[in-house]
Amino acid sequence: MLLVVGGKVKKPGKRGRKPAKIDLKAKLERSRQSARECRARKKLRYQYLEELVSSRERAICALREELEMYKQWCMAMDQGKIPSEIKALLTGEEQGKAQQNSTKLAKAAKTEANSSNP
């Protein structure tokens, strides 16, 4: 049985593309090239993951050192001593607050002066 569709004769049966006769050597070369590319992508992926792991390990070490420092500070404060680092932080905060207050007062004075002088 033959079907005529749009001026073309179609045979019933298999649908889709017919397999082209491909040179075996060319097919093998494409396969090799694909494998090379796959290995290269895999290598890059592993390099990226190794860098990611090493950066996370460095971050973990830094956080452990910071935690140890805080533990030492707590032990010193339990003994009634205030570590010099904490004193520096507290005095720095007090100085920062004093500067903020002085700038706020200066701004308030400027706005008052501007509003009273029309």
TrEMBL record:
Transmembrane segments: none annotated. One of its GO terms (biological process) is cell differentiation. Residues 24-73 form the BZIP domain. PANTHER family: CAMP-RESPONSIVE ELEMENT-BINDING PROTEIN-LIKE 2. InterPro entries: bZIP, bZIP_sf, CREBL2/REPTOR-BP. Residues 93-118 are annotated as: Disordered. The lineage of its organism: Eukaryota, Metazoa, Chordata, Craniata, Vertebrata. CDD domains: bZIP_CREBL2. Pfam families: bZIP_2. One of its GO terms (molecular function) is DNA-binding transcription factor activity. This is cAMP-responsive element-binding protein-like 2. Belongs to the bZIP family. ATF subfamily. It is found in: Nucleus. Keywords: Activator, Differentiation, DNA-binding, Nucleus, Transcription, Transcription regulation. Its main location: nucleus. GO terms for cellular component: nucleus. It comes from the Eukaryota. Signal peptide: none annotated.
